[in-house]
């Protein structure tokens, strides 16, 4: 299964097997990039963060404790890197006029672009923890227990954060609903 | 049969398909009969549908290959012990702040015997959130504390070597008499 494969790959990487790292990278490159993009909502930044995450993974793999699931360790690094990056960039984020209140018809191309912006804006309005829980649950399909482990919080807190995110999105996305 | 209050508490679990079969039937029956709950349910489903349309455009395979190669390059230089000494100051300050925050959050009455953050051990917290018993402010407060601790300490500890971590723990133990 997924977890068992990771244990073997990590073991091999610790023994200096570069091919094992290649396989681990190929397995997780899409989820890691997707998490980073969905968290930061910017392609250039998502690329930079993804790069940082894999550098950290390679350099710190010896510190990974095999009692925990590998992907929760990996996602935790990804999420922490996103949060740190966002905090560093905060002062450089340009101001955009809010479009969340506009009502759009998702059929036209122009409106699709606006719809995308509304989704971007809505997700970025969520607190980091709620956005992370939503991403890991809705887009990556993890259980609340796994999400809690990845976020370093309890299962109940992971569930609460996810629910808060959905309830808020119901308001933030009212232009599309 | 369930009422509107119970239905609204379980609506997100129902959408997530995490309720048992009998409860799912009860909720379905209620949704058929209750227009307000049905509207609320539809709005949540629409949020899920909108999120489902949120696609990610992946970078090219070449880009991923370049990242893979870059990740495997050795670090340019090892951190000096002087760096470690400086790094220890904010880490220790952070640890002291966390202890202070937790100490200051100790319950002030005998009726409440655990700190608020212990509530999060309860897996039913989500339903309390949904009922509005645990508000955004408390969640944000606890999240902020966790995030701050994670940011300040975890990254610092993460960057340390095994030897540095050992020294760090030893110093913390000496400073705060942890475990005594």
TrEMBL record, chain A:
CDD domains: Sigma70_r4 (cd06171). One of its GO terms (biological process) is DNA-templated transcription initiation. Residues 117-169 form the RNA polymerase sigma factor 70 region 4 type domain. The keyword Ion transport does not apply. One of its GO terms (molecular function) is DNA binding. Keywords: Sigma factor, Transcription, Transcription regulation. InterPro entries: RNA_pol_sigma-70-like, RNA_pol_sigma-70_dom, RNA_pol_sigma70_r2, RNA_pol_sigma70_r4_t2, RNA_pol_sigma_r2, RNA_pol_sigma_r3/r4-like, WH-like_DNA-bd_sf. Residues 24-90 form the RNA polymerase sigma-70 region domain. Belongs to the sigma-70 factor family. ECF subfamily. This is RNA polymerase sigma factor.
From TrEMBL, chain B:
It comes from the Bacteria. Keywords: Membrane, Transmembrane, Transmembrane helix. The chain crosses the membrane at residues 83-103. This is Zinc-finger domain-containing protein.
């Amino acid at each position: 299964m997924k977890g068992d494969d990771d244990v073997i790959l990590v073991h091999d990487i610790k023994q200096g097997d570069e091919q094992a790292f290649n396989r681990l990278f190929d397995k997780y490159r899409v989820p890691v990039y997707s998490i980073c993009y969905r968290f930061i909502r910017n392609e250039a930044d998502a690329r930079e963060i993804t790069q940082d995450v894999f550098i950290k993974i390679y350099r710190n793999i010896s510190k990974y404790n095999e009692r925990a699931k590998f992907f929760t360790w990996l996602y935790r690094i990804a999420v922490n890197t996103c949060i740190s990056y966002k905090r560093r960039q905060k002062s450089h984020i340009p101001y955009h006029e809010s479009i969340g209140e506009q009502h759009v018809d998702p059929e036209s191309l122009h409106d699709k672009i606006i719809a995308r912006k509304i989704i971007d804006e809505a997700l970025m309005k969520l607190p980091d923890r709620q956005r992370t829980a939503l991403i890991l649950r809705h887009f990556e399909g993890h259980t609340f227990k796994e999400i809690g482990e990845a976020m370093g919080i309890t299962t109940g807190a992971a569930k609460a954060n996810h629910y808060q995110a959905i309830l808020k999105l119901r308001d933030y996305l009212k232009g599309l609903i | 049969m369930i009422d509107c209050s119970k239905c609204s508490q379980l609506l997100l679990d129902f959408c997530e398909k995490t309720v048992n079969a009998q409860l799912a039937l009860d909720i379905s029956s209620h949704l058929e009969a209750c227009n307000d709950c049905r509207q609320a349910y539809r709005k949540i489903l629409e949020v899920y549908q909108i999120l489902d349309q949120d696609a990610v455009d992946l970078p090219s395979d070449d880009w991923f290959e370049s990242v893979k190669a870059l990740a495997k390059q050795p670090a340019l230089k090892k951190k000096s012990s002087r760096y470690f000494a400086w790094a220890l100051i904010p880490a220790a300050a952070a640890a002291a702040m966390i202890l202070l925050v937790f100490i200051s959050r100790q319950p002030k009455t005998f009726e409440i015997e655990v700190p608020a953050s212990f509530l999060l051990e309860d897996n039913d917290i989500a339903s309390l959130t949904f009922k509005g018993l645990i508000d955004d402010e408390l969640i944000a407060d606890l999240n902020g504390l966790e995030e701050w601790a994670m940011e300040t300490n975890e990254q610092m500890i993460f960057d340390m070597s095994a030897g540095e971590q050992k020294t760090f723990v030893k110093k913390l133990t000496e400073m705060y008499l942890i475990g005594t």
